[in-house]
Amino acid sequence: MPGVVLSARDLSKRFGAIEAVRGVSFEISEGETYGLLGPNGAGKTTTISMVCGLLARDGGEVTLDGAPIDPGAVAAKAGIGYVPQELAIYPDLTGRENLAFFGRLYGLGGAQLKSRVGEVLELIGLTERGNDRTDRYSGGMQRRLNIGIGLLHQPRLLLLDEPTVGVDPQSRNAILESIAALGRQGMAILYTTHYMEEAERLCDRIGIIDGGQIRAEGTQKELVALIGQRDEVRLSVSGNAVAAAHAAGKVPGVVSAAARGDELEILVDNASRALPRLLDTVETSGAHVRSVELIQPDLEAVFLHLTGRALRDAE
Amino acid sequence: MRIAILVAIKDLRQRLRDRSAILVSVVAPLGLAFIFSQVLGGATDFHATYVVADMDGGELATVLRRDVIGSLEEAGVVTVIDAPTEAAARDAVEQGKAGAAFLIPVGFTAAIQAGQPTSVDVVGARNAGLATEIARSLAQRFSDGVVGIQLAVATVADLRGTATTPSDIARIAAAAAAAPAAVALVDREADLRQLSLPSHFAASMAVLFLFFSAQIGMVSLFEERRQGTLARILAGPVRPTTVLFGKTLGGFVLAVISMTILVVATTILLKADWGPPVGVAAMVLGAVIAALGITTLVTSFFHTAEAAGAANSAVAITLGILGGTFAPTNQAPEVLAVVSLFTPHGWFMRGLGDMHGAGASVADALPSVGVLLLIGLVTGAVGFARARRLVTPR
């Protein structure tokens, strides 16, 4: 049974009148990738900043391998690798110099540092460009280096704060594969994202966070099970989709309905029973149904079920 | 300490790649010191050309031409040209051939001997203020002397009860004008505790731009914050104050290196005489610490690199002007000399000056070093305490 690496209990943080994080608790074990899935502003970055001691907590406790992590806990923080959401690299230094600087901050030196820099450059596919200044890198290369710096000292816990935002699909795929490999090697990973597909692909367990609170937590299977035997119906419409969603929400058997562009995402107890009346109601509301899709429940449906809003609409 | 050194080395590496830092720290002060010393370097070597139109030709006119104006010619301060007419003298001034003209009218000697009023006209050239002022002073001095002698001779004659002939007056006046001054003013430059102009401008530009290079380390905190690297550093096993210390250390090393380059370069290129090396090193150290302290304090009041940079520049220029970096305070009104003592620039220039002159030694600069260190430590301590908010988790 792998031991608990990170324990966060009852974290809270307030910025003036805004309560950004309210009683967030979770644990991550050795080799486990834990995802915090939620829209922008849900409290993901605030949570991760409190975990690594960048933000002072108003309440709660964080431990790494049992040792408390506070802003003043210098030694304990050596076990954490932090990959911020925005690029955090020196543009006027080379990739190799960036890695070496941060490696030295974590106590690496000499042959060990040189070896690790080489390994990480290899891992992130930048061996050939290691001696180039990073302001001459493409966006994807900079993102990969941004992640590589967090891995350099082989931390017990890797914190990844939306590392694929703004990354092209090819680089994104490479990044996700690298992270999955790290998880298999036994690293504990906290991964925040608002991309449902990433959470589904990478994370062993997921905490769905919204409004500063974790609304549900578990494996993907456990989370989908929260919806029960419900079905998700996706209608493509023309006309006023918002009014149509509002009308659809009043149909008996409909649990929730939300408009996203020209699509209505509707969670129903029994699709075959509700569908005829649902279609009729939408048409009556003034919208015209162009296509109907019955889809397998996923994390998007879970978020809709838990919050009454589609994940992407909440951003 | 290890991490502070790492941060400082990283900063220095970045600054060396940033040509603007080299421009501000070395090229600009060196260039300006060169320009100022070339443009103003000859300001103390005054020389003027005067033209004299003696339309009188009498005994006292000759005394004025030969003994009064001529004495300056003998000293090599002026060149005197004799003009045949007043018009020729005026033309010489108009054409810029002379800085001023003395016009001695017909009947000048006779008028003085008769106790009648007369005058010497001084015509000054455009843009020759100092030459004209000196010419006016000469004429005024001669006039004052003549009036004094007339009064003295008349008093003596009155006491004797005998009349004084014009020739007596002329003889006495000529003798008085030619007599050496009772009190001689001797300018012994070696005893003056001040820098030569090339040295002054080398030192003043160095200390002025020191305040620009010293701010670079602390202001780069904002850049680190903007690009996210500060958060990344602080997420690691690093104390926030260590980052501040590293930034200060980087600024200190950069400032010391740039000052050292400037001292050596101006000594070689401009023949600047900074003073004894040990004393200069102490002065540079004091100035660097003062600059770091003040820029840290100023920076601590702002939230962006742009605002902090602008404020530091304004403070540097203001202190530089008040501290006499653009013009020596010994040539400024007394109040400015007093105000300069409220600036590190003023103490830096004063300390360097104190090491010059007969009998001066390094010990003479120690009070200035002490004041600079005090300024740096006090402002630095307050600034450092305030700047902690820039790196402390909120």
What does this structure look like?
The complex is a heterodimer of chains A (315) and B (394). Chain A has 315 residues and is of the alpha/beta class. Helix content of chain A is 34%, strand content 30%. Chain A has helices spanning 44-51, 95-105, 110-123, 139-151, 169-184, 196-202, 220-225, 241-248, 271-284, 299-307; strands at residues 4-15, 18-29, 33-37, 59-64, 67-68, 80-83, 157-161, 188-193, 205-210, 213-218, 231-238, 254-260, 263-268, 288-295. In chain A, the strands form three sheets. A six-stranded mixed β-sheet of chain A has the order 6-7-8-3-9-10, sandwiched between helices. In chain A, strand 1 and strand 2 form a beta hairpin. Chain A is elongated and about 75 Å long. Chain B is built from 15 helices and four strands. In chain B, strands 2-1-3-4 form a four-stranded mixed β-sheet, sandwiched between helices. In chain B, strand 1 (48-54), helix 3 (59-74) and strand 2 (78-82) form a beta-alpha-beta unit. In chain B, helix 8 packs antiparallel against helix 10, helix 8 (197-226) runs parallel beside helix 11 and helix 11 (277-299) packs parallel to helix 15 (366-387). Chain B starts with a helix and ends in a 7-residue tail after the last helix. Classes of the chains: A alpha/beta (315), B mainly alpha (394).
What layout of secondary structure does this protein have?
The complex is a heterodimer of chains A (315) and B (394).
Chain A: E1 4-15, E2 18-29, E3 33-37, H1 44-51, E4 59-64, E5 67-68, E6 80-83, H2 95-105, H3 110-123, H4 139-151, E7 157-161, H5 169-184, E8 188-193, H6 196-202, E9 205-210, E10 213-218, H7 220-225, E11 231-238, H8 241-248, E12 254-260, E13 263-268, H9 271-284, E14 288-295, H10 299-307
Parallel strand pairs in A: 3-8, 3-9, 6-7, 7-8
Antiparallel strand pairs in A: 1-2, 1-4, 4-5, 9-10, 11-13, 11-14, 12-13
Helix pairs in contact in A: 2-3, 8-9
Chain B: H1 2-17, H2 19-40, E1 48-54, H3 59-74, E2 78-82, H4 86-94, E3 100-104, H5 108-113, E4 121-124, H6 129-160, H7 166-178, H8 197-226, H9 229-234, H10 240-269, H11 277-299, H12 305-322, H13 334-339, H14 344-354, H15 366-387
Parallel strand pairs in B: 1-2, 1-3
Antiparallel strand pairs in B: 3-4
Helix pairs in contact in B: 1-10, 2-8, 2-10, 3-7, 6-7, 8-10, 8-11, 8-12, 8-14, 10-11, 11-14, 11-15, 14-15
